[in-house]
Input
Amino acid sequence: MNGKAIPKKRKGKMKMWIIAVVALLAASVGGGILFTAGERREGRNLPIRAVDFHSLKDGTYVGEYEGGKYKWRANQVRVTVSSGKVTDIQLLMHKENRSRDFTGKLYGRVIESQSLQVDTISGATITSKAYLKSVENALNEAQK
Output
């Protein structure tokens, strides 16, 4: 260093800029959390009703979920029922960019247990419920 001290006036301006930037970032994050709170609350409270898997008619059924308040989790599935059991679930359309591993794991749980009352994917509970809702809607058609 050259041994020159930064003047107090300049230190004060720098400190004010740092405070302003931190406050702006905090307000942005807080605003984002408030903006999405309704969507998250709706997703957490989305009911997945029990479907009687013993009364399913064979066939292929399409179900969809509109995706909540902002349509972020809109999706559509095709469910195949054979010999009275769910044998295949295919994701036809979705707004989120979820991998086949995600849907394969979730839908595999439904097929294995022949129930919609399965564990959701950790870290993606709301999305899991949205995808299960589409399956529920398809299976409601399989019971008519």
